[in-house]
Design brief:
Elements lengths: L1 E4 L3 E5 L13 E7 L5 E6 L12 E11 L2 E9 L2 H4 L2 H4 L3 H14 L1 H6 L8 E5 L8 E4 L3 H6 L1
Parallel strand pairs: 2-4, 6-7
Antiparallel strand pairs: 1-2, 3-4, 3-5, 5-6, 7-8
Length: about 150
């Protein structure tokens, strides 16, 4: 398992995935603690199940998928159980989602050097919530705009 530290979080590339492979079905599991002091990203062929069971943390799962002749990064943000019961917290997730996508893109920048057409692939993230009006699928731009920031 390849691990490295970025400024705010740790990243693990789970074998048999590598920095450059796979593209199709490349999955990301990002766990962000509520106090934002400890975040972890796993990149691999499957979601990192050991990270999926946490009440106090928000989680983003995402995957590269082919769609209509192009790739898209499709994902879901899952607020922690304590967070999802708070309606005020549910509609304030936009900055959190943007930060999570930015973390994924920046952590996987070597993939974009190897597969540059992914820099212009659309990113769609679904927000889960117990409150129906806060559920949404958002277009969050393309990876290139996160690498420039």
């Amino acid at each position: 398992m390849e691990k490295f530290q970025l400024d705010e979080f740790s990243v693990a590339i789970l074998p048999p995935a590598t920095t450059y492979h796979p593209v199709d079905g490349r999955k990301y599991t990002l766990i962000m603690s509520t106090d934002e002091t400890n975040s972890h990203l796993a990149i691999g062929y499957k979601y990192e199940m050991s990270l999926l069971h946490s009440e106090n943390k928000s989680m983003l799962t995402a995957e590269w998928k082919p769609s209509l002749g192009e790739y898209i990064l499709s994902g879901k943000i899952h607020p922690g159980i304590k967070q999802s019961s708070n309606s005020n917290r549910s509609h304030q997730t936009q900055p959190e989602v943007t930060k999570a996508v930015s973390m994924i893109v920046k952590a996987d920048k070597d993939l974009f050097a190897h597969v540059p057409w992914l820099l212009y692939a659309p990113i769609y993230i679904e927000t889960e919530s117990n409150i129906h009006k806060y559920r949404a699928i958002q277009f969050l731009g393309v990876p290139k705009q996160y690498l420039i920031l």
